[in-house]
Amino acid sequence: MPAPTALRQPEEASVPQQTNIPADQDDEILIDAQATAEQSSRPVVDSAEDEMRIDEEGRPVFTPSQETSAAYKVESRKVPVPPHRMTPLKANWAKLCPPIVEHLKLQVRMNIKSRAVELRTSKFTTDVGALQKGADFVKAFTLGFDLDDAIALLRLDDLYIETFEIKDVKTLNGEHLGRAIGRIAGKDGKTKFAIENASRTRVVLADAKIHILGGFKNIHIAREAIVSLILGSPPGKVYGNLRTVASRMKERF
Questions:
Q1: What's the number of CA atoms in the CB half-sphere (13 Å) around residue 12?
Q2: What percent of the chain lies above the pLDDT cut of 90?
């Protein structure tokens, strides 16, 4: 019988030899690998655009902006006109249009059929709030303010109009309501003029409605004086309070 052959042992898989790397070099290798990954993920930026140009005085120089034709949206506004203000509107129409057309760059027309003034923006309109200013200007004229006083709404940004009724302060009917309106107006309008001059506002008495044009604090002063007159305070006491307020306002300015 043939001699039994020795069984072959399976060859060991070739294992790569590991090199001993010091700990400090291992950290450096990891950091370098992360940095290379971040660099590969960054977009490529042109070096010419990335560099900032500086003039002789050390100030940055930027490329001039290019004008682009932006699309504009046509917006319109309609301001209703009371029947008793149509005649003054027609009489002052020639003076009412130039501030709206030349200053605000708006298109305006009078619609007699619907008794309203229509405003519309155009491609020449540059101010974003031009339409609102124009509507406030026309609204002030329809409420009864003079044209010169209404134009102040276009030139100044801190002017407002406040409207309230006598019944909001106190419920009055018949002759009591008439006497309250008379106390506010005064003889030949002297009380109303005194309130306007002391508070630097403009007041319009439209039957039982009262409109005040002016700054926020000035409107507050005029409203307090008018409310005191409605509640029955004598005009002499109101005049005294207005003198005190007027002197304080002069000290501030």
A1: 3
A2: 35
Domain count along the chain: 2
> Per-residue pLDDT tens for 43-76?
444 444 456 788 888 888 888 877 655 556 788 9
Q: Does residue 66 fall inside a structural domain?
A: no
Domain boundary (120, 141, 157) is at: 157
Boundaries of domain holding 150: 74-157
